[in-house]
Amino acid sequence: MQFKDYYKTxxxxxxxxxxxxxxxxxxxxxxxxxxxxxxxDAEARFKEIGEAYEALKDPEKRAQYDQLRQGGWRQGQEFRxxxxxxxxxxxxxxxxxYSGFSDFFESLFGGLGASGFGNGRRQGSxxxxxxxxxxxxxxxxxxxxxYAGGVQRLSLGGGAGSRTLNVRIPAGVTEGRQIRLSGxxxxxxxxxxxxxxxxxVKLRPHPLFEIQGRDVHLTLPITPWEAALGTRxxxxxxxxxxxxxxxxxxxxxxxxxxxxxxLPGKTPGDQYVIVKVVVPAADSARARELYExxxxxxxxxPRAGMENPS
Amino acid sequence: MTPSNxxxxxxxxxxxxxxxxxxxxxxxxxxxxxxxxxxxEGVAEPRSGSACDWQFSARQLRRVSVxxxxxxxxxxxxxALPVVLDLIEEVETLRRRVRLxxxxxxx
Lengths: 310, 107
Fold this sequence. Notes:
By secondary structure, chain A is α+β, with helices and mostly antiparallel strands. Chain A has helices spanning 6-10, 18-32, 42-57, 59-69, 103-109, 143-148, 224-229, 285-297, and strands spanning 135-141, 150-156, 163-169, 178-181, 197-203, 209-212, 215-222, 231-237, 240-246, 255-258, 271-277.
């Protein structure tokens, strides 16, 4: 495992006061909170920040960490805990951790538990039978799977508690919906049933389609003559290619609707095709000739409305 | 028999979930009193009825679970949660629209 420099993660000096650490954490937490942030790696960054804060906010943990860090460890260095480290502490239990913290954190503080962050481990007491806790996670689903349903491999948690799971996803999942996996939460105590796993769905960005609710948007490049004369062509949809006609005189930005071709549901979404006229360069004598002919024979003025704006 | 027959099956939580107060609390790991307070503040809007038969949609469930994370991770004041949730929803909608419009105008 790799050594983690928690001070560096929070961007504070090793002598920082508890208040400075809290301020630094709050600022970074606001920036990278997965429910707020638009940063691509927000979730991973937020976990690192949370882990660093968890280690440094507690004077006992911080003192232990400082003692270790004084040994001269650097961020990312291959790390093995000293043999005497953690002796006499409680073991990490069943070896399954859902705190989402790294192996490094678990090896240092595994026996101390994580308070208030994520799902702290419950200390098992003899004879108690209880249902395991529900676990929350977010999951990115491929658009074709959201449309048709299918099996997707999900990575859950991070750090020491990470695991992967192949899961059957129902058709018609949309952004922001929740899905439930029964019995995939924390294990129960004393033979009690396991909790459930709830996942917030995010749709993985697709190279062609943009999704809003159940509606699918596709930008369709066409030629100026297709736009002017109209045409029939075949366009991709999530359910396969579909023939559609482009009416004569279609300008860039015009939106055409393919009813019911969006994501499935009680009321299936539509697919909107947004036309984008792409103009080829006049890079041959013949092409220039054709453009020149249009120029001399057409009186079209797209800027006519700009003369007397009011 | 294919191995995929044994895969865990994800269940889509219906849009018209109709979870009651206790179920929402169990799913989100909140205590009933705290959620009651949050509802008074406007974090979530139960479908109707008196406090004893409040029902919540999937969207409301999502608002409560986001609120819980924001409160836990950013220590937001409960009174600030509704406006933050509203803004998050609006920003999400706007980001999607911007992405869409950028596709149309970019080369």
